[in-house]
Design goal:
By secondary structure, the chain is of the alpha+beta class. It is built from eleven helices and ten strands. Helix 5 runs antiparallel to helix 8 and helix 8 runs antiparallel to helix 10. The structure holds adenosine-5'-triphosphate. Adenosine-5'-triphosphate binds next to strand 2, strand 3, strand 4 and strand 6.
């Protein structure tokens, strides 16, 4: 307990910024025009089709809402194609009003089968932003877990491989997601799994970063994000996504949040003690050596000992019986 108290006394409780390395020049994206224009402004995310504007879409139902906005299922009037439309909440400052936030920038420039596809971004005359995305008809991995229960090892391996391909793509493009968890991973009926919700993500090297102080969801946060001084003050952020992936995959296999006993409240101090000072709970008996080893490679407390996404793609757990997947 004394050790715990002394460790706590020099904890950095306001979650410092990730230190940037490999800085790139800022990506130049156009500033959006002033909000007084009568027609919506549209940004096409796909090179092959015309931009979709709000007038092209009929709202069908609300799919969910979070801190960043509300997501609707919508139908394109002309093609009958179904999309997901995220309307970003309107409580932003005047600087934010005129610029794409990191989520929009990332969705606009990413193109991977493992990252949710953005078709179009627009701004209404009132200043409200909309993101037209591909519709993932099975919802989030969190929903799938609730309705179908714990995943088999082979299903966890399949999801792991798809997410690793997505993270490898993002990390190769200097993007850190910072909020990997079952609720931010979307699934469709083709059993595709895609990384979504870039609301707190970061593009390394950007000069503009509107989400510096945001911490992501603490339940899936790595030790260095709780306490960078003890764990690794030079962490680059990518390894934080790998930790969150490890917790997420354990959750899929065990059927409940793995770092606390089922039903225990995941408050910040309890989680910090478990993640930073406690021994991590092990996987249940009967689990294969490959899964055990894979999770260990993700959940190393020292971030530099964690495997990268590209190295994990070579781990026997994900490349047991299939050929390497394309990005
Ligand atoms: N492309 C999509 N296809 C299908 N459903 C989606 C899609 N995008 C989001 N959703 C649904 O809408 C919900 C809200 O999405 P949102 O991006 O606002 O994320 P959130 O994780 O709930 O919120 P926050 O921004 O606070 O993290 C999701 O939980 C999901 O159920």
């Amino acid at each position: 307990m004394a050790v715990l108290r002394s460790q706590r006394s020099h904890l950095n409780l306001h979650l410092p910024l990730t230190k940037l390395s490999n800085a790139l020049p800022p990506i130049s994206l156009p500033l959006l025009p002033p909000t007084s224009t009568a027609a919506p402004t549209e940004y096409n995310c796909s090179s092959s089709s015309a931009p979709i504007s709000p007038a092209d879409l009929d709202k069908i139902q609300v799919l969910g809402s979070g801190n960043g906005g509300t997501v609707y299922k919508v139908r394109h009037k002309e093609t009958s194609e179904i999309y997901a439309l995220k309307i970003i909440h309107h409580n932003f400052d005047s600087n934010f009003r005129r610029q794409l936030n990191p989520e929009m920038e990332i969705l606009r420039c990413t193109d991977s089968p493992h990252v949710v596809k953005c078709h179009s971004i627009f701004q209404n005359p009132s200043g409200e932003f909309g993101i037209v995305m591909e519709y993932m008809d099975s919802g989030t991995l969190e929903n799938v877990l609730k309705s179908e229960g714990a995943f088999s090892e082979s299903k966890v391996a399949d999801v792991a491989k798809k997410l690793l391909n997505g993270l490898h793509y993002l990390h190769s493009n200097k993007i850190i997601h910072r909020d990997i968890k079952p609720a931010n991973l979307l699934v469709n009926s083709n059993m595709e799994v895609k990384i979504a919700d870039f609301g707190v993500s970061k593009i390394l090297g950007r000069t503009l970063d509107t989400c510096n102080s945001f911490v992501g969801t603490c339940a899936y946060m790595s030790p260095e994000r709780f306490d960078s001084q003890t764990y690794d003050e030079n962490h680059d952020g990518y390894a934080g996504d790998i930790w969150s992936l490890g917790v997420t995959l354990m959750e899929l296999y065990m059927g409940h949040f793995p770092l606390l006993p089922p039903g225990e409240r995941a408050d910040w101090p309890t989680l910090m003690c478990v993640v930073c000072f406690g021994e991590l709970p092990s996987l249940p008996e009967g689990v294969s050596d490959e899964l055990k080893s894979f999770v260990e490679c993700c959940l190393q407390k020292e971030s530099s000992k964690r495997w990268s996404a590209s190295k994990l793609l070579t781990h026997p757990f994900v490349c047991k019986d299939s050929t390497s997947e394309e990005q």
